[in-house]
Amino acid sequence: MLGSPAKLTHVPTGIVKSVLQVMHRLTSSRVYGPFEFVTTILSNDMVAPAFGQDTLGDYF
Q1: Can you count the helices (H) and strands (E) in the chain?
Q2: pLDDT by residue (tens digit) across 3-30?
Q3: Full-prediction pTM beyond 0.85?
Q4: CA distance 11 to 26
Q5: CA-CA distance, 50 to 55, in Å (whole number)?
Q6: Which of 19, 57, 60 lies closest to 39 in space, CA to CA?
Q7: What is the pLDDT of residue 34?
Q8: What is the dihedral of CA 55, 58, 59, 60, to 10 degrees?
Q9: Do 35 and 11 meet the contact criterion of CB atoms below 8 Å apart?
Q10: Is 34 part of a structural domain of the chain?
């Protein structure tokens, strides 16, 4: 809710990998595929070094 403190949740990587293995064996790729994609994206660092002088603030 707006104004309340943020609740951050952490799920250990081992649990996520185990669930993904079970899903891979029991479900079709249409089910586990998107889950695998999201878990891969969320487990990688997506921050790149700063490059250039232009910012979005300058543009807008």
Answers
A1: 3, 0
A2: 888 887 788 889 989 999 999 999 999 9
A3: no
A4: 21
A5: 10
A6: 19
A7: 93
A8: 120
A9: no
A10: yes
Nearest to 20 by CA among 2, 37, 45, 8: 37
* Cβ 9 vs Cβ 1: under 8 Å: no
Residue 1 has pLDDT above 70, yes or no: no
Which amino acid type is present at position 17?
K
Instruction: Identify the domain containing residue 28 by its residue range.
Output: 11-42
In terms of Cβ atoms closer than 10 Å to its own Cβ (0-12, 13-18, 19+), residue 14 is exposed
Q: What is the average per-residue pLDDT within 17-46?
A: 90
Inside any domain, residue 54: no
34 compared with 44, residue with greater pLDDT: 34
